[in-house]
């Protein structure tokens, strides 16, 4: 059984003092089993959060990473640097990165391979726009993005990747794909993964849902057989709601 994951993407929010307060509150209340709890602060706060979370079950992620180990890439973050600070995961290909900073599928693939080479876990995001959904192109879009992100990977490497389906029309809008809509895409992706690798790999890889995830809708989303957790935005900025999401995940893990 795949362990449920709750990954909080804090985006460009919180002062360092507030980030530390939030991180410590989450660390204090986080379950020790039944869920993988991850937080992704802004890059400036990674070092401080790493120290604050060091003895807790909460794991640390970066909101981005570069494909090179070093070099003339002003403002970027190299995977070895992140690993040195205790980072275990990095979010790649988020729709905001694609929309505002020109991130493309080839770049996501290069970053994915770089992270894996440094023993880090990529959290690879993908999803369709509202126009693409209404045009019936959801499957074509997500299959293309996932195949591109995983190009050149072995099955063993792919099992270290976390996928995150985030329909663009649901991110920060208050709209959420229905559990049935999300499950349909997740189940389809298992088929894509089985075709690309094998059935064992397809069943082993976690697929998260992201897009206005909150405690009021998380249990129903997690009740779907192919949804393994959430990549959470706003609800991860308060300890109470993030920890409630973790408890919901534990309940699924225990029930399963």
TrEMBL record:
It comes from the Bacteria. InterPro entries: Aldolase_TIM, TIM_sf, TrioseP_Isoase_bac/euk, Triosephosphate_isomerase, Triosephosphate_isomerase_AS. Keywords: Cytoplasm, Gluconeogenesis, Glycolysis, Isomerase. It is an enzyme of class 5 (isomerase). Its EC number is 5.3.1.1. The active site is at residues 94, 166. It is found in: Cytoplasm. One of its GO terms (cellular component) is cytosol. It catalyses: D-glyceraldehyde 3-phosphate = dihydroxyacetone phosphate. Substrate binds at residues 9-11, 172, 212, 233-234. One of its GO terms (molecular function) is triose-phosphate isomerase activity. GO terms for biological process: gluconeogenesis; glyceraldehyde-3-phosphate biosynthetic process; glycerol catabolic process; glycolytic process. Pathway: Carbohydrate biosynthesis; gluconeogenesis; Carbohydrate degradation; glycolysis; D-glyceraldehyde 3-phosphate from glycerone phosphate: step 1/1. Homodimer. Belongs to the triosephosphate isomerase family. Involved in the gluconeogenesis. Catalyzes stereospecifically the conversion of dihydroxyacetone phosphate (DHAP) to D-glyceraldehyde-3-phosphate (G3P). This is Triosephosphate isomerase. It comes from Lujinxingia vulgaris. The lineage of its organism: Bacteria, Deltaproteobacteria, Bradymonadales, Lujinxingiaceae, Lujinxingia.
């Amino acid at each position: 059984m795949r362990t449920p994951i709750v990954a909080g993407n804090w985006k460009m929010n919180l002062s360092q003092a507030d980030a530390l307060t939030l991180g410590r509150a989450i660390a204090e209340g986080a379950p020790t089993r039944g869920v993988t709890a991850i937080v992704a602060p802004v890059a400036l706060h990674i070092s401080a959060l790493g120290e604050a979370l060091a003895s807790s079950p909460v794991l640390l992620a970066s909101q981005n990473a570069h494909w090179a180990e070093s070099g003339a890439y002003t403002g970027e973050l190299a995977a070895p640097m992140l690993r040195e600070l205790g980072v275990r995961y990095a979010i790649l290909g988020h729709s905001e990165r694609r929309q505002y900073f020109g991130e493309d599928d080839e770049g996501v693939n290069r970053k994915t391979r770089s992270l894996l080479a440094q023993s880090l876990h990529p959290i690879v995001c993908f999803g369709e726009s509202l126009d693409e959904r209404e045009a019936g192109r959801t499957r074509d879009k997500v299959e293309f993005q996932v195949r591109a992100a995983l190009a050149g990977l072995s099955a063993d490497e792919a099992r270290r990747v976390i996928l995150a389906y985030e329909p663009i029309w649901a991110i920060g809008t208050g709209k959420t794909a229905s559990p049935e809509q999300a499950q349909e895409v997740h189940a389809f992706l298992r088929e894509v993964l089985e075709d690309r690798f094998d059935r064992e790999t397809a069943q082993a890889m976690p697929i998260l849902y992201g897009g206005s995830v909150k405690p009021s809708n998380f249990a129903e989303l997690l009740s779907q057989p192919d949804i393994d957790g959430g990549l959470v935005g706003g609800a991860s900025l308060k300890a109470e709601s993030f920890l409630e999401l973790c408890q919901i995940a534990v309940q699924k893990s225990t029930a399963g």
